[in-house]
Amino acid sequence: MPLDASSTPLHALHLRHGARMVPFAGYALPLHYPAGLIAEHLHTRKAAGLFDVSHMGQIRLKPGPGGMADLARALETLLPIDVLGLAPGRQRYGFLTGETGGILDDLMVARLDDGLILVVNAANKLADEAYLRAHLTGQCEITVLPRALLALQGPLAESALARLAPETAAMRFLDVRVVDILGASAIVSRSGYTGEDGFEISLPEEAADMVAEALLQDNNVEPVGLGARDSLRLEAGLCLHGSDIDPATSPVEAGLTWAIQPVRRTGGARAGGFPGAARILREIADGPTSRRVGLRPEGPTPVRGGAALFSEEAGESIGRVTSGGFSPVLKAPIAMGYVPAALSAPGTRVFAEVRGRRLPVSVVALPFVPARFKRS
Amino acid sequence: MLKFTDEHEWLAIDGDVATIGITTHAAEQLGDLVFVELPKVGARLVKGEAAAVVESVKAASDVFAPVSGEVTEVNEAAVADPASVGTYPQGGGWLYRLRLDDASALDGLMDEAAYAEFAK
C-alpha cells in the first residue's frame, strides 16, 4: 500500500470484516472481503450489498444572492443537463463537458432545499473542484463536504434501510431526502451504480462506522468490495470515467444522449450554452461516427479493456474495448467498447485481439443484466 | 520433491517430469478464477516465457514457464472448472506437466520453507 494512501472513515470496519485492502484513487479501499468477488456480486443481485464509496467527492454548491435559479443557470454553463428544472428532493445524472465535447467527468446532481450536491468520481474530484471554483466563484459557495458515503444496493436494500429509516421505503428512483439515521443527519438518494434498486447514504464521518455496522446487522446485508462494484456496473452497462468515457469521448458516442434533456438540445428553450455544444448537438442531429456498444465474446476467453477491435480476422483496427471482464450472473465474459456506427447494430460480429489472436465477439444491446430501479 | 519459484509457482518433481501449478498464496492474491488457458501438449517451453494464463473476474495473469522443457500433459479439468485452480491450487488445480530439458535447472528454485519465508 503506498504510504500516501488515505483511509476512509470505514477503514477500521473493513479490517474488522477481513477485507483485502488495495490502493485506489489515493485511498486504501477493500477489493473484496473473505466471501470473495463472485459471492459478493451475486449477493448484491439477490439480497443487498454494502459498499464504502467515501472516496468519491461530495461537493456542495450553495446559491448566492441570486438564489437557486441563478446557481442552476450558472451550472448549466458547464454541463448539458437541465439543472433549472430539477425539483427539490430530486437527483439526476450528468457530466461536465470540455470544449471539444468530451466528458471531463460524470456525476450525480442532487437538488436539496438549500442548494445542490454533486457526487463526482474520486480520481477527478480535485480537478472538478478547481474547475468549479474557476467558473462559479462569485455565483455560489463551493464546499467539499467531509462526509462518508455508503451505497446499499440490491433487491433487499429497501427493507434493510427501512429498519433504520422507515421513511426511505417510500422514496422513488432518484429521490433525495435528508433523514435521521441513528441520530446522524444522512442525505439519502435512491440511486447507485449496480443496476439494482438501492440507496447512496451520505453521512457525517464520525457516524459512518456505526450506521454501516447497523446495516450489516441485517442478515441480508453483506459488505462488498471494489472488485464486485466494477463487475456489477459492467453487467449493468454503466460507464466508468477514465475507461469507457473520457475527455475525448462525447456523451453521444457514449450512448448517454438520454441524459441531455430536450430543453438543452437544439430547439429547446435553453439549447446549447455548455462547453462542446457544437459537437454534441451536431452528433445528436447527425449521429456520431462511433458508438459505445456491449460486446459478448463468443468463446470463454475474457476480453479486457484496451484490446483492439477489428471488423474481420485480418485488416486494420476499427475500435477498442474500454472495459471487459467476466459476468458472474451470465457466467461468461462481457465487455464494452467503441465501434464505428455502421458496425454498432446488435448481432454484428467483430473481432477482439487477445494475446495475438483475434477472437469473435458479438455486438449486443446494453445492459447485460436488466436494471431493477424503483421507478414508481 | 517440491520446488517453488519467485513467480509463485510450484513444481512437483517426479524423475524428469515436473507437475506445475500456482501456489496457494498466488491463488489468494488473484481471487476467484474464471478462465484458464493452458499450453498444448507437445509444446516446447522456454524458461521465463508465458506458458499459461489464469484470469480472475478483473484481470488476466500470465503463468511463466519456471524451467525449459516439453509439455507432456495438461489439466483439462482446470480449463473446464477454472475455480478449481483457486480452490485447490496445490492439488487438483495443477496446470500442466513438463519434461525437463535439464534437471539442474531446478537447483536455483526454492524449497517449501524458503518459499514460505519469501511469500510472507
Strand-pairing-aware structural class of chain A = alpha+beta
Task: Report the uncertain regions of chain B.
Answer: none
Q: Give, in order, the helices and strands of chain B.
A: EEEHEEEEEHHEH
Coarse morphology of chain B: globular
**CATH architecture assignment name of chain B:** Beta Barrel
CATH superfamily of the domain at 6-49 and 146-235 in chain A: Probable tRNA modification gtpase trme, domain 1
- Largest interface summary: A-B, 18 and 12 residues
Main sheet makeup of chain A: 6 strands, mixed
How much is the average pLDDT of chain A? 96
What is the overall number of helices of chain B? 4
Task: Look at the helices and sheets of chain B and give the structural class.
Answer: alpha+beta
End-to-end separation of chain B in angstroms reads 22 Å
Total domain units of chain B: 1
Give the radius of gyration of chain B: 13 Å
Roughly how many Å is the radius of gyration of chain A? Answer: 21 Å
**How would you characterize the largest beta sheet of chain B?**
6 strands, antiparallel
Task: Please describe the structure with a list of short key phrases separated by commas or semicolons.
heterodimer, A: 376 residues, alpha+beta, Gyrase A, domain 2, Elongation Factor Tu (Ef-tu), domain 3, 6-stranded mixed beta sheet, 6-stranded antiparallel β-barrel, 8 helices, 20 strands, globular, B: 120 residues, OB fold (Dihydrolipoamide Acetyltransferase, E2P), 6-stranded antiparallel beta sheet, 3-stranded antiparallel beta sheet, 9 strands, 20% helix, 38% strand
